[in-house]
Amino acid sequence: MKRISFIYAALLSIVFYSCQSYTVVPIDYLVPADISFPAQIKRVGVVNNVGEAPGRVATDAASDSVSEKTNGSLERYTLNGDPEIAVEALAKSVAGENYFDEVIICDSALRVSGTPKQTPFLSKETVNALTESLNVDMLISLEEIQIQVKRQAFPVTGMGFLGAVDAKVYPKVYLYIANRDAPLIMINGNDTIFWEGIEHTLTAARTKMIPDERLIAEASDFAGAIPVKHIAPHWKTVSRIFYNNGSPEMRDAAFFVRENHWDRAFALWETFFEKAKGIKKARTASNISLYYEMKDDLEKAHEWGKKALELARVADKIPEDESTVSSSDDYTRIRYNQSILEERRSDFTTLKMQMNRFNDDF
């Protein structure tokens, strides 16, 4: 796997030259999956074991009713997702992480739509037959997709009526390997997707909401990506605070960062750190910590982050009771950066173990 530490393009869109001493930048880095697999699992098959047909789930009247509010409406109900769309999205999402050597999708459903499950999971015989016919080391089986929908329309002062649809999506996925009597892992994921729009009248707001048919299609496609964080290492986007002003050196370094010349920026920070005092010294140390993290040297990043935090503590005169610290203090900003770094450091051992199959080339 090719080594890509961060997506620099996000940094290029940031305007560094402003009167503010810092800016917030998004960065991406690889985080481990929730589940670790032996390196021998290289080929996986994605199969559809969903029996429920797409559409509304028969529920009690209370959960499926429409309630009229003052100048508004609210409706709650449950849908079954479309397994064909979800399975395709799941296979694409797993393949997109480039963790397994090959991802194979089984075109046909294992159960006829609308038929109840005879057993809670696939039998050992079925799993053995599928792994052999697909020539894979593990099966990723989609078992169920439910979508809890909330539709509401209500007035927004001076704008009209807002029509909003929130859908909480629950894909259930089981992982199987051959010669076992039960699934290796059961994954119950969930996430939320929403749609909204402003109309002049309540009736228009209600009638122009996304229809169930399209909602099922889009939510099912969305559902396919939800289990991936459990299965494969994946990219995570976080925001960091970057100091870009306060001295000619800091402004020049910010220009080099914008041009993706991090080593030249580091040289300026390193020189300026020796002569800087007070909060400027703390800010420079924080930038140096970010530099080392960009170079994947997490231990040096941690070392400089601790130094930045201690310098900021002294400069900002932080009391023992940190709950009284203002969110505008540099100490709080630097501490935020370091909390994200420490989370990444704590995950690194697991990530390294999961990426051993690539000989640490990540």
Overall description:
The protein is of the alpha+beta class. It folds into two domains: 9-32 and 235-358, no CATH class; 43-232, no CATH class. It contains eleven helices and eleven strands. It has helices spanning 9-12, 83-96, 124-134, 202-207, 212-223, 228-231, 248-258, 262-275, 278-294, 298-315, 330-354, and strands at residues 22-31, 43-48, 55-56, 66-69, 72-80, 102-109, 138-156, 160-176, 185-188, 191-199, 234-243. Strands 2, 3, 4, 5, 6, 7, 8, 9 and 10 form a nine-stranded mixed β-sheet that branches. The protein has a two-stranded antiparallel sheet with strand order 1-11. A hairpin with a 2-residue loop joins strand 4 and strand 5 (72-80). Helix 9 (278-294) packs antiparallel against helix 10 (298-315) and helix 9 runs parallel beside helix 11. The radius of gyration is 26 Å and the shape is flat. It starts with 8 loop residues before the first helix and ends in an 8-residue tail after the last helix. The model is unreliable at 1-18 (pLDDT under 50).
Question: What's this, in brief?
Answer:
It is built from eleven helices and eleven strands. It has helices spanning 9-12, 83-96, 124-134, 202-207, 212-223, 228-231, 248-258, 262-275, 278-294, 298-315, 330-354, and strands spanning 22-31, 43-48, 55-56, 66-69, 72-80, 102-109, 138-156, 160-176, 185-188, 191-199, 234-243.
How many whole angstroms does the radius of gyration measure? Answer: 26 Å
Report strand %: 25-35%
Largest sheet: 9 strands, mixed
DSSP strand tally: 11
Query: How many domains comprise the coordinates?
Result: 2
Low-pLDDT segments, ≥5 res: 1-18
End-to-end gap = 6 Å
Structural class: alpha+beta
Number of helices: 11
- Characterize the overall form: flat
Name the helix and strand elements from N-terminus to C-terminus, one letter apiece: HEEEEEHEHEEEEHHHEHHHHH
Percent of residues in helical segments?
Answer: 25-40%
Mean pLDDT: 87
